[in-house]
Each structure stands twice: as C-alpha cells, then as structure tokens.
Amino acid sequence: MARKKATATPSKPALSYGERQALLVEKFLDGDGWDTIYRTWKRRVEEFAVPLDPLFMDIPIHDKTGKYVGGQKQDWWCHSNIEDHRARIIEGLNRDYVLMSLLDPNYRLTKSIGQTVQHLWAHHAEPETVAAIMIAGSIFRRIHGRGRGRLPDDWPSYDCLLAVERVANERWNGEPSSGWAHYHSDPFPANQANDEEYGIKSLKGLVEYFAVEHAATLLVCRLVNVRFIEREKPVK
Asked: What is the model's pTM?
C-alpha cells in the first residue's frame, strides 16, 4: 500500500512591526487602566509625606503700591528659601522693580515648567487629575522633550510609554495628545534621576518610578500661589 505524502503545515505570516508593538503594549498594560495607575502612584507618593493637600502654598503679599492688588501668580519656589523669595518681592515692590523677574528669582520657569504650573493650578483641587498631569509630564520629557525617545535598553518601549501617556492625558484633558507645547525643556524643576541607572520591567514599576520622581521634586520645590492684597489698615 502506497504511503501518503506528508503535507506541509502552512506557516503563519510574520507579524508586522506594528502588530508586534501592539502585542507588547497589550502585555505591558495587562488589562490595567487609569484606576490601577492612580492607586499605584498615590500609594508610593504618600510614603514620602509630600505636600499634596493643599497642593499650592498660599503666599499673601501686602502690596503697598496698590499696582498689583487682586493679582496672583503661581510658581515653583525652593523650600529652603521661600521666606527669602517673599522678602525680595516685597522689597522689589517698594523699589518699583519689574515684578515678573522677582516672582521667579532663580528663573526656573522655562516654557514647559510654566505650562505644568498652570495645568496643576487649574486642577489643584482634583487629586487624580494632578496625578495624571504629573505622570503625563514625566512621559513627555522622555518621549517628546529633551529625551525625544532615547529610552534605556531595559525600559519599556516607546509605544508602551506612549500608551500610558495617552491614558494619563485622556484622564486630565480628554485628549490623547500632550498638554505641553515646548520640546526643549523639562516640565518640572529640580534635577531628575538618570534613567540609565534604573531598569523598568512593568507598568507598576514605571508608575512607582515616576511617583518617586514627583515626590523628590515636591520635596525640593514647593508649588506656591502668590496673592497680592491691599495694605493692612491700622487698627484705630
């Protein structure tokens, strides 16, 4: 009896680059969404006892000149010299100096940092939105800003970070696109860690890494809301 000829099993076509990246992103997210990201971020940040409520320190300044009464300005100030900043603004008001340079004595407000401050101020009473803005900012720095996608070899891929950025952006502004317009500066003040020194293998690890970055920033610099108020009236 003649033997049947073996039939070759048809091979599956190779996945395209886009299909492979989609599978990597799906595996990286593992079904988790914003709720998991926020819980992870919040738990890690709280371990450092950083100031989140209120997010902005209120800095009332009596304007003896009356030029700026009713105005306010949000900024990052170093914890170590908040009182010095305040004193310099008061002195500047008395000497009729240009106000904006006094509000930011260390000239920290590059365009991206200034945008971050405004985003945070607009949502300062919404903890989850604050977390989304800060996470989106950290990812922006790495895949759009100075880093421009130059990620360490032992980090998640560009597409994985982009997927997390979309989740964060959609949580706070309803859009998958970035809330930062400037591509040549960081969204946060203070020095950031060297990503090359830290391996990231999971979504949990990525979010915790960003949470530590945010905690470190908030422990060095304080978000402030400078308010200019009328000169105190003497008690009769």
From this structure: 0.85
